[in-house]
Design goal:
Blueprint (H helix, E strand, L loop, with lengths): L6 E3 L2 E3 L11 E4 H4 L17 H11 L3 E5 H4 L6 H17 L6 E3 L18 H21 L3 E5 L4 E2 L7 H22 L4 E5 L8 E2 L4 H8 L8 E6 H6 L4 H10 L3 E6 L18 H13 L6 E3 L13 H23 L1 H11 L14 H9 L4 H5 L5 H13 L3
Parallel strand pairs: 3-4, 3-12, 4-5, 5-6, 6-8, 8-10, 10-11, 11-12
Antiparallel strand pairs: 1-2, 7-9
Helix pairs in contact: 4-5, 5-6, 9-10, 10-11, 11-15
């Protein structure tokens, strides 16, 4: 049966295999579909949506989860009773729509107080306020039941290079992360943190700009097991990096706690375009990687509808992102099962060397035999790998020909 043939379940006829379903674990932030279309050069082109309406619409489209930013729901400086009431109300609205809240975060970049930085600000008063706002947002996330707390260091960086000692800034960053990790531990919250790298914007240069920087930083923390990364396709692409490779590194390290899927033109401002709208090959291999390596986390779409869209049309960005993921997932499954592809990959893996020389596991005997073995590098160099054919088959799968 092909993907376009209908399947019957009882009296129901299902003709769309790409329809999003809860089991796909697709999630969105309130700030994504709620984006009002403003940018650095123009005012908003749409009115905002209330959270209850966003939840209802996303649930109707087949989304599984909805994430929040603290300022989306209640001011951090609001009294405790008001914040607790807002958390209970949001949790109930989420449950009423059959959704979950996999992730929460705090906005440490909007208010003027953060103009010079947040955790890494030179003013100790700003750093203290940052911790207060973060702790209150963590309490909110715990009350809602979000197991992941995202930390995007939007203002953690510099514009004037002489303004900060970068070693001191990283020390402040490390101390702040250590503080909130201890707080979560003391409160008994089942929450882990995800650092979200970005190379620049809104600062000229940001600290922890890429996945590699974030992973190296995490290794220096007092509680590295509680901290991972949230990688975003747009952020890594801004730096002209291969998102697929960045995700693979985080997965291999066991540190991919969350992922933001969207799209982006290389070395542009942060565009947050619909997933798969620009970099289809990267999107294809990213989906293939997540599915084949059994990534258990949310498939979150940090997608902002085009500024040109009317309020009634912004949902096309959400539905389109989810459908593209499912289409690419099906293509990746067929790609992996294609005998032509397996023949190419299998041929490249074969070697007539003695088996004990084909392992990278060290032993004194293996090292001795490896040094003594007479290789024929010219013969090895004559081997063809058929990567042109492999890449063309990839293109044909993406285009729907294979």
């Amino acid at each position: 049966m092909t993907a376009t043939e209908p399947t019957k379940t009882g009296e129901e006829t299902q003709t769309d295999p790409y329809k999003p379903r809860k089991e796909d674990k697709f999630s969105f932030g309130l700030w994504t579909m709620g984006n009002r279309g403003h940018d650095g050069f123009g005012e908003a082109t749409r009115r905002g949506f209330k959270p209850a309406y966003l939840l209802e619409k996303l649930a109707g489209l087949g989304a599984w989860g909805v994430n929040f930013q603290d300022d989306d729901l209640v001011a951090s400086e609001a009294p405790l009773a008001e914040r607790s009431r807002a958390a209970r109300q949001f949790k109930q609205q989420v449950e009423d729509n059959g959704l979950v809240t996999p992730m929460g975060t705090t906005a440490l970049f909007v208010k003027p107080v953060f103009k010079e930085g947040a955790f890494t600000a030179v003013d100790p008063g700003v750093r203290a306020f940052t911790l207060q706002k973060t702790l209150r947002a963590i309490d909110f996330a715990a009350e809602v039941g979000a197991p992941i707390f995202n930390l995007w260091g939007a203002r953690e960086g510099v514009d004037a290079e002489g303004s900060k000692d970068p070693l001191e800034a990283l020390k402040r960053y490390r101390e702040a992360i250590g503080f909130i990790c201890r707080y979560v531990e003391d409160q008994g919250y089942n929450i882990k943190f995800a650092l979200e790298p970005k190379p620049n914007e809104p600062r000229s240069d940001s600290y922890l700009p890429t996945a590699g920087h974030a992973l190296a930083f995490i290794a220096t923390l007092d509680q590295p097991d509680r901290v991972g990364v949230n990688l975003e396709l747009a952020h890594e692409t801004i730096a002209n990096l291969n998102f697929y490779h960045e995700v693979a590194q985080a997965l291999e390290a066991g540190k991919l706690f969350h992922i933001d899927l969207n799209d982006q033109k290389v070395m542009r401002y942060d565009q947050n375009m619909r997933f798969g709208s620009e970099s289809l090959k990267i999107a294809f291999f990213t989906v293939k990687l997540l599915e084949e390596k059994n990534y258990a986390g949310p498939r979150h779409f940090d997608v902002h509808p085009y500024r040109t869209e009317a309020e009634a049309d912004v949902w096309d960005a959400a539905l389109g992102s989810m459908r593209t993921y499912k289409i690419l997932k099906e293509k990746a499954q067929r790609f992996a099962a294609d005998p032509r592809i397996e023949a190419i990959l299998g041929q490249n893996r074969r070697s007539d060397l003695p088996g004990d020389l084909l392992t990278a596991r060290y032993s004194p005997e293996t090292a001795r035999r490896l040094k003594d073995y007479r290789f024929d590098p010219d013969r090895l160099a004559r081997k063809g790998y058929r990567y042109e054919k492999l890449d063309q088959l990839t293109i044909e799968y993406i285009l729907g020909i294979a």
